[in-house]
Design brief:
Elements lengths: L1 E5 H12 L13 E6 L3 E7 L3 E8 L12 E5 L1 E6 H10 L4 E7 L2 E6 L2 E6 L18 E4 H11 L14 E6 L3 E7 L3 E8 L11 E4 H9 L7 E7 L2 E5 L3 E6 L18 E6 H12 L9 E6 L2 E8 L3 E8 L1 E3 L3 E5 L1 H9 L5 E6 L6 E6 L2 E5 L7
Antiparallel strand pairs: 1-5, 1-7, 2-3, 2-6, 3-4, 4-17, 7-8, 8-9, 10-15, 11-12, 11-14, 12-13, 13-26, 15-16, 16-17, 18-22, 18-24, 19-20, 19-23, 20-21, 24-25, 25-26
Helix pairs in contact: 1-2, 3-4, 5-6
Length: 378
């Protein structure tokens, strides 16, 4: 194999693939990337067996070596090289173009007067990476997809527990893609329209949060149309330069609709930025062992209080539009702030029934966030 590639393009491709490469693995080959050079493109492949990436750099020129932007394949072939080392070396090179060539059991990376020789592995040991074929896909704007992920994935479980909560539920209906994530203490749900839906509606799928974030990293242009494929035990996303696949989580997702209040007796509408600022002020005094801020509501007024043993207490207030009798409810401030960070409009809404019932935050069109309350001693 011998290729000449624009250094920035090769660096970007290696960086994307490195997101999926494990730092340490019981299978050493997984710590490598597979470089595949064909007559029309250079492909960079990586996997941890749960998520896989196929990044494509198309051939752009037959010009001579050293010309900016050139991507040329002189000798097609395959090389499996250490992922992290290859990225670090290409990133730190000063040359604008890079030449890679294999000889015996080594792959040489050369840029100008600098070069390194990497030990290669047998390509036959590298796992087979899936590829999009002639399959039914749905299409949507890349920016809409990344917004859905940012509004939901943060609420997925991180601690050991129900495995199905460690992913984001994706559901497709006639007009939209819905994503839901929960850790049992809060739940985020958002939806966005799809441009094209497959003839056969995909079944609901639980996608690992790592896979969702990886999908977002390869979407370079928010206006680009991306394609999603749901099939078997995996979901795939295709952009102009990359194909990503993630193995689905096998399990039963919680019945999320059961915790979403359908009617509420207390309704609050507030400026989201002001609420976040006041909430941070009061949260400063709460301890890690008891993260709770009390919301006290009266006509036109929201009072926030927090306290902890050994630190003291703090109070803040703000004007709100409130409908309902005088009421009180307490939340973990970190949970509320994470939701407010993703709010899309100036105003946010909070609805609840009792101090022990879930709080429903409406943070934008087709975007709700449920937070379970905390019992605070009077």
């Amino acid at each position: 194999m011998k290729i000449t590639c624009d250094r920035a393009k090769l660096r970007d491709g290696l960086a994307v693939v490195n997101n999926v490469i494990p730092g340490k693995s019981t299978k050493p080959v997984l710590e490598n990337v597979c470089l595949v050079a064909t007559i029309d493109a250079i492909e960079i492949l990586g996997t941890d067996l749960e998520c896989s990436v196929r990044y494509r750099i198309p051939v752009t020129s037959d010009a001579g070596e050293g010309k900016t932007g050139v991507v040329r394949v002189d000798e097609p072939g395959i090389a499996v090289v250490p992922s992290r080392v290859a990225l670090d070396f290409v990133r730190d090179l000063g040359a604008e173009s890079v030449v890679l060539y294999t000889q015996d059991q080594t792959c040489t990376i050369q840029g100008g007067e600098d070069q390194c020789e990497l030990v290669t592995m047998d390509p036959d040991e590298f796992p087979v990476i899936a590829s999009f074929g002639d399959v039914q896909m749905l299409s949507m704007q890349g920016g809409a997809f990344t917004r859905l992920v940012s509004r939901t994935a943060f609420a997925a479980a991180r601690d050991a527990g129900r495995y199905a909560m460690h992913g984001v539920l994706a559901e497709v209906d006639d007009t939209s893609l819905k994503m839901v994530a929960t850790d049992g203490r809060r739940l985020a749900m958002a939806s966005a329209p799809v441009e094209l839906r497959p003839v056969d509606r995909p079944k609901p799928a639980i996608v690992p949060t790592k896979g969702m974030h990886l999908f977002c990293r390869v979407i370079e242009d928010p206006l680009e149309q991306v394609q999603l494929y749901f099939g078997g035990n995996q979901v795939g996303l295709k952009t102009k330069n990359a194909e990503i696949f993630a193995r689905l989580i096998d399990g039963e997702f919680p019945r999320y609709s059961a915790v979403i209040p359908r009617e509420s007796s207390h309704h609050v509408e507030a400026d989201g930025e002001t609420l976040a600022q006041k909430l941070r002020l009061v949260a400063n005094v709460t301890g890690t062992e008891a993260r709770a801020v009390r919301f006290k509501l009266t006509s036109g007024d929201l009072g926030l209080t927090g306290q902890s043993v050994g630190r003291g207490g703090a109070r803040a207030r703000m004007d709100v539009d409130y409908k309902g009798d005088q009421a009180e409810i307490a939340f973990n401030p970190d949970f509320v702030l994470e939701g407010l960070k993703n709010a899309e409009g100036a105003l946010v809404k909070l609805e609840f029934n009792e101090r022990t019932s879930p709080g429903k935050f409406t943070l934008g069109e087709n975007y709700i966030y449920i937070v379970m309350p905390i019992t605070v001693e009077a």
